[in-house]
């Protein structure tokens, strides 16, 4: 400590007016990191004293009271320091970033504030890995100002505790939770009574027992997961759900205009985001924006909306019907998934000027629509024969391995 003190004395002796602009700015940056490290050391020391109840030696009732009395700390700062120290014990990555001075006390505070024991328990129950959450949030804090970090934290909270009712008495007889895990996955968990389970099972079975496309190698669990999503898509597409804030409910994708126009795999392209589930990669955002039934919000470089997708053009339904009749099923080589499983794919993406038309449209099941956007496959229709051809990312054609 005495060395630290004498270093600070030396620092106070520097004539700042003598320094060049560069040296001065370097010093400010250096001191900012050092201040973070000192704040982290203070937090650790407070935590150690808190854990062994050292404040009792001075007759204080709590560490917080001791900080207020002996250090004349503001009550909110005392509370923040004690609680940050306690919760950082469960967040080693955030603690390490703080100790290294890479993030400040304000960053550590916004992260630890959200990490209540109740939420941590709920996240664990939903299968969300706390270590992964810690790594993601620490990475976000290293790259952003505290108020921006707070936005990421809020997203985690919304996923884990969407209605803020964590303290409600849990009804263990029926419950269903969904949590978006910041890692691009959504975790589901729940219990139903026998009647509720029967309804859900009957609906899922209806989707699972339809004609299975040739070459379907999905496991039972994968098919059941796909059936659940299909059930939701069918309800949204059917238009029978109640309006939400005066609008027909549907999936909404936000994507940057530059990202929409970029080639697949182009470097440095921002991803898109979904209203609830959060960030998605640019290829996935382009695929969702490709289907005319998905509402899209296109943003400019400043993040402000440029265009809010034309709501449900009347022609798109008629065009889709025509394509369903023409194609009959998913047109990817070797697939015969039925139309109700399929998206309307723009062969030339509308962002590149491709029209929503029969000529430019193709039925692709979700799996193969994903192949065409995320996977780099392409499809082309021979105008002479009317037959569809499928090409791998290397340009070679996927040919039928059986039959003529
Ligand atoms: Zn598409
Ligand atoms: Zn397919």
From TrEMBL:
Keywords on record: DNA-binding, Endonuclease, Hydrolase, Nuclease
InterPro entries referenced in this protein's UniProt entry, alphabetically: CB, DUF222, HNH_nuc
Q: Which organism is it from?
A: Blastococcus saxobsidens (strain DD2)
Q: Does this entry carry the keyword Kinase?
A: no
Q: What is this protein called?
A: HNH endonuclease
Q: Which domain of life is it from?
A: Bacteria
Task: Note whether Hydrolase occurs among the keywords.
Answer: yes
- Give the GO molecular function terms: DNA binding; endonuclease activity
Pfam families attached to this UniProt entry: DUF222
- Where the record annotates domain Core-binding (CB), the positions are 1-50
